[in-house]
From TrEMBL:
A matching Pfam family: OB_Dis3
The organism's place on the tree of life at top rank: Eukaryota
Domain RNB: 468-799
Region described as Disordered: spans on this chain: 308-329
Domain PIN: 51-164
Subcellular localization: Nucleus
Keywords, sorted A to Z: Exonuclease, Exosome, Hydrolase, Magnesium, Nuclease, Nucleus, RNA-binding, rRNA processing
Protein name: Exosome complex exonuclease RRP44
One annotated GO molecular function: 3'-5'-RNA exonuclease activity
Cofactor (UniProt): Mg(2+)
UniProt lineage: Eukaryota, Viridiplantae, Streptophyta, Embryophyta, Tracheophyta
Length: 931
């Protein structure tokens, strides 16, 4: 049956047009209920032993945490609801899709829009929302009639008007809260998102609010859009200072600088990484605050922090709350200062932390109000109502934000689930993974079904493949960190008769086992990367692939994708060959073992000779890169020695980089560059590349000021000039240069993946490597970007067809964005794991050690501890002393105590005491104090 369906849409030019499409209706769509005798289908999902629920769009959008609970089952998800959710919130849509495919949940998607008996025509003058509500009620009535009186169909909706109409039409309808109460599981009530008005009424009953408003109302989007157009307002992502949650920055392209936001009032209910609209404060207020290190209990001073002026349009009276104190302070810079006037895109998420009970009695229905305190100090406290306060008080829990009204001191949220006991290492590690949105779910049956059977070995088809070259005769070996099991790269180096070298980089051929569009491929694309914590690894691909089938282990035959060069003794590339291959590694060495072989002159075996030849070539290649302007940066990588039984850290120190590490890095860089050139030549509009944007002058200014304070003049005009300046930045001790390079690293932009069709070729440049082209090819076991590049290279060599995703520019851009997001999250999780194990290590080991000052603040300084790779704040004033007798010279990066000769400057060596303290309940921290 054919129907015409019409709707209006706005074109890019702003014109409104009517679109008419043909809409096919069918009568063979089954209802999914096991009790049904009419529909013939094997895909039965709905049980007859309980009520069948039909949920509306708002229930899905706002109650997804509750819907994911095992207690909620036997649910019909109408296609009209699923389509609307997809248009309004892609994250919730993906979670809903997962529920509908979960074999453990009876969620059934019914295509009411395509069923002849449930499709509803549009009515003249009816809004899309009203039409969808009518379609939901119509489907509920049809189900009741279709299945008969023996089955209860229950419509779940929080829309009063929709519920009223449903009851009038003879449909059983409940609000989500009343339905959950009927289940008689009080703990489930904590998952119910209460409308903002209801939360306010509940809180008002508990403790009347003293003020009508704590924050200014957000401007409407129409006004924000107009203000951005006329540069009255400025848009950017809000980043909260990790050392001071009352200080934030918004990078604005419209003014080419960062706007500083001081105090929660001026942040105006914005969360870290929200996209916000900012209004600049008058210039005479730009000098109102110095940058402080926040004291741990500053957030208890809510009366000062949340003050809002009596005039709704006046700027806040008290912008000097960066360290919880009022009063004026001297000027330190002319950086623009502003306040948030609207939220363009929220970054609300689930947060991990613990509860802080409120000092007033429980509210209605046995629910107690409590403040949730996130482990991340950048997140404000969140008020929740809970029926199980006693059970949660010593637990790490997850809470989600629901709303933040301008008349509420705190955002409102709801409890999601309990993680575990506070202080337990496994619990705290799980908190890190949740905070960084790392997928730790076991691989599904559908994903595991994509794997080849074990034990795997080369097949006759592999051997006979004309596109795969047999390289088992070559002396191939790998060099990796100690204990590495997911080996995805190996090398060979042989001497040719003409005196040149044949050098090969062999990469695990993951795409031979991961086919486009399969559940395995989709899972890998979603995860994006493997995540490395101190004590464990969360794989992007199942372990049979990462540690066995694809891993280039010693003495086993493996499939590879190889890049082979002919090189002169001066490391000039004569020719490059790309081929799928079969290899058999003769040795899997660690960096330490490889270095020991190269350093031991008594060792002259073939593998050691190959290592020395590769190292000689790598040194030349490295110097050539540096001469082009490549930066030799440094990072504070920490290495732990872990107890094999307790998994507690036994020792901690800076990770040592050897020549062997640099040698492997050099050839991986060269392979990535060669592959980038090849795929871009064949696919100029759909290649996945990696770029490192040039840092702005403003980004590098802190480094320039720090260097100038110790008499160094850094030239930042080009990457080559900066590289040369860093080479000449030599102090009295050997660590000085590394410290300068660490500071330079922190001024850099993030390298990112992108689609070549999205940018002009001039923007492809990788600043840090001084390379016009770059991509990731060498780690497909642990990075999905490399999987995509392998497919591009195979298509360029006409070994395989180009997958359809590369012809969809929008989808390709989305994939690149997800890879960037996942890569950053993996980095953040790794750093948080280091911080957790640092706390565990020092909990019983108070230590005195040397540190370097890296940043001067008004009430102290930030130091870096070279021995342990730790960075943290050192306070010079007690809370309440403001900045005491200390005066700060921002330009000279020094601070001096009045009436004394005591002063401190950046890069100065100081002696500090390290000790784990807990100034706030459940928030242990490593405290650094000056000796």
């Amino acid at each position: 049956m054919l129907q015409s369906k019409s709707f209006v849409k706005k074109t890019k030019q702003g014109r409104v047009v009517k679109v008419v499409r043909e809409h096919y209706l069918r009568d063979d769509i089954h209802c999914g209920a096991e009790i049904c005798k009419v529909c013939q289908s094997s895909s039965v999902r709905l049980s007859s032993s309980a009520s069948i629920l039909i949920i509306d769009t708002n229930v899905v959008l706002h109650q997804i945490d509750l819907l994911e609970n095992p207690a909620i089952n036997n649910v019909i998800v109408l296609s009209v609801v699923l389509d609307e959710v997809r248009n309004r919130n892609m994250s919730v849509y993906n979670r809903m899709k997962a529920l509908c495919t979960d074999a453990m949940k009876n969620f059934y998607v019914f295509s009411n829009e395509h069923h002849r008996d449930t499709y509803v025509k549009e009515m003249v003058g009816e809004s899309p929302n009203d039409r969808n509500d009518r379609a939901i009620r119509f489907a509920a009535r049809w189900y009741q009639s279709h299945l008969g009186e023996g089955t209860q169909i229950l419509l779940i909706t929080n829309d009063r008007e929709n519920k009223r109409k449903a009851v009038e039409e003879g449909i059983s309808a409940e609000t989500i809260e009343s339905y959950v109460r009927s289940l008689q599981q009080p703990n489930l009530l904590d998952l119910v998102v209460i409308p903002t008005s209801a939360v306010k009424e509940e809180i008002d009953d508990l403790r009347p609010l003293k003020r009508k408003a704590f924050y200014l109302e957000h401007k409407p989007m129409s006004e924000i859009t107009s203000g951005l157009l006329h540069r009255i307002y400025h848009q950017g992502k809000l980043r909260v200072n990790r050392y001071n949650p009352f200080e934030a920055y918004v990078g604005s392209e419209s003014i080419g600088d960062e706007i500083v936001i001081y105090g929660r009032v001026n942040m105006n209910r914005a969360f870290d990484e929200d996209v916000v609209a900012v209004e600049l404060l008058p210039k005479d207020q730009w000098s109102g605050v110095k940058s402080f290190i926040a004291v741990d209990d500053d957030e208890d001073e809510e009366d000062d922090i949340h003050m809002v002026p009596s005039s709704a349009d006046a700027p806040p009276r008290n912008t000097n709350v960066a360290n919880g104190h009022s009063g004026s302070t001297p000027i330190i810079s002319d950086r623009p200062v502003g306040r948030v006037i609207g939220i363009i895109k929220r970054n609300w998420d689930s947060y991990c932390g613990s509860l802080e009970p409120m000092p007033f009695p429980a509210g209605n229905g046995g629910a107690a109000s409590a403040l949730f305190v996130s482990k991340d100090r950048r997140i404000p406290k969140i008020r929740i109502l809970t029926h199980q306060l006693g059970n949660l008080i010593d637990k790490r829990i997850i809470v989600t934000v629901d709303s933040w009204d301008c008349s509420s001191k705190y955002p409102s949220g709801h409890y999601v689930r309990t993680i575990g006991e506070i202080g337990d290492r496994d619990t705290e590690s799980e908190v890190i993974l949740i905070d960084n949105d790392i997928n730790t779910r076991p691989f599904s049956v559908q994903v595991l079904a994509c794997l080849p059977p074990l034990p795997w070995s080369l097949s006759v088809e592999d051997m006979a493949n004309p596109h795969r070259e047999d390289l088992r005769h070559l002396r191939v070996f790998s060099v990796d960190p100690p204990g590495c099991r997911d080996i995805d790269d190996a090398l060979h180096c042989t001497t040719s008769a003409n005196g040149n070298f044949e050098v090969g980089v062999h990469i695990a051929d993951v795409t031979n086992f991961v086919y486009p569009g399969t559940p395995l491929d989709e899972e890998a694309a979603q995860r994006g990367t493997s995540v490395y914590l101190v004590e464990k690894r969360i794989d992007m691909l199942p372990k049979p692939l990462t540690e066995d089938i694809c891993s280039l282990r010693a003495d086993v035959e493996r499939l590879a994708f190889s890049v082979i060069w002919e090189m002169t003794p001066n490391a000039e590339i004569i020719s490059t060959k790309y081929t799928k291959s079969i290899i058999k590694s003769c040795a899997a060495l660690s960096y330490i073992e490889a270095q020991a072989r190269m350093d031991d002159s008594r060792m002259v075996d073939p593998v050691t000779t190959d290592l020395r030849n590769l190292n000689s070539l790598a040194k030349i290649m490295r110097q050539r890169r540096v001469d082009r302007g490549a930066l030799t940066l440094a990072s504070a990588e920490v290495k732990f020695q872990i107890d094999t039984e307790t998994h507690d850290p036994l020792d901690i120190g800076m990770y040592q980089i050897r020549e062997a590490n640099q040698m492997i890095e050099e050839f991986m860089l060269a392979a990535n560059v060669s592959v980038a050139e090849k795929i871009l030549k064949h696919f100029p509009l759909c290649s996945l590349l990696r770029r490192h944007p040039t840092p702005t002058k403003e980004m590098l200014e802190p480094l320039v000021h720090t260097a100038a304070s110790v008499g160094l003049d850094l030239d930042i005009s080009t990457s080559k000039a900066l590289a040369d300046s860093l080479d000449h930045a030599v102090g009295d001790d050997p660590y000085f240069n590394k410290l300068i390079r660490i500071l330079a690293t922190r001024c850099m932009t993030q390298a990112v993946y992108f689609c070549s069709g999205d940018l002009a070729p001039a923007e492809f440049h990788h600043y840090g490597l001084a390379s016009p082209l770059y991509t990731h090819f060498t780690s497909p076991i642990r990075r999905y970007a490399d999987v995509m590049v392998h497919r591009l290279l195979a298509a360029a060599l006409e070994i395989a067809k180009l997958p359809p995703v590369f012809l969809d520019g929008q989808r390709l851009t989305q994939l690149a964005d997800n890879l960037n997001h996942r890569h950053r999250n993996a980095q953040m999780a790794g750093r948080a794991s280091v911080e957790l194990h640092t706390l565990i290590y020092f909990r019983k080991r108070p230590t005195d050690t040397e540190a370097r000052i890296v940043k001067i603040k008004a009430n102290g300084f930030i130091v870096f501890v070279p021995k342990f790779g730790i960075e943290g704040p050192v306070h010079l004033t007690a809370k309440g002393d403001k900045q005491g007798d200390w005066s700060v010279d921002a330009k000279g990066q020094t601070m001096t105590k009045a009436g004394t000769n005591t002063s401190y400057r950046t890069l100065q060596t100081v002696r500090i005491h390290l000790e784990v303290v807990e100034p706030q309940p459940h928030r242990p921290k490593l405290e650094l104090t000056l000796i």
